[in-house]
Amino acid sequence: MAAKGKNVALLTEEMVNDLEFWVPYYRLKEAGVNVVVVGSTAGATYKGKGGLPCTAEKAADEVRAEDFDGVVIPGGYAPDLMRRNAAMVRLVRDLFEAGKVVAAICHAGWMLASAEILKGRTVTSFFAIKDDLVHAGAEWVDRDVVKDGNLITSRTPDDLPVFLPAILEALEAS
User: Fold this and answer.
1) Is the pLDDT of residue 97 over 80?
2) Are strands 151-154 and 145-148 parallel, antiparallel or unpaired?
3) 79: which of 16, 20, 48, 99 lies 20 to 30 Å off by Cα?
4) What pTM value is reported for the model?
5) Is 73 helix (H, G, I), strand (E, B) or coil?
6) pLDDT, tens only, 45-62
7) Closest by alpha carbon to 11, among 97, 99, 115, 98?
8) How many other C-beta atoms can be found within 10 angstroms of the C-beta atom of residue 5?
9) Which amino acids are annotated catalytic?
10) Helical segments of 56-173, H only
């Protein structure tokens, strides 16, 4: 388990997709990764789309890209709220620019667009935000997982079985 000991930020906000948050949370922990839940407010509890709560350990303005080896951005409606937080957007951009793992699933592509890191990149997402990603400069493809450099994207919770191994492989290589 070469990912053991790596530090990953897992972003959260209201209306996060429960599966896209909790499956990475536990799978990464199982692999020995130190997962830090980052939200807009430290200590705040956010309710997922299915009603499961999660509590932010840190606020986005309290952490820096240097603190992490990567970030996982779950989908749901949460990414639309996440991208309204300048510190959260800056964290994603800084991690990407530092060559660290940036993983986004479903509607999390909205955060990638707001972080302005999609130009010339090949990505996937939930089909409904395809146009947003294309307008941000990405080439969109309909595949279960897409790795383009340090950027990893997937479409829906059905893709979690390939999304998580791709993240772990990228962390192990970093």
Assistant:
1) yes
2) antiparallel
3) 99
4) 0.97
5) strand
6) 999 999 999 999 999 999
7) 115
8) 11
9) 106-107
10) 78-82, 86-97, 109-114, 130-135, 160-173
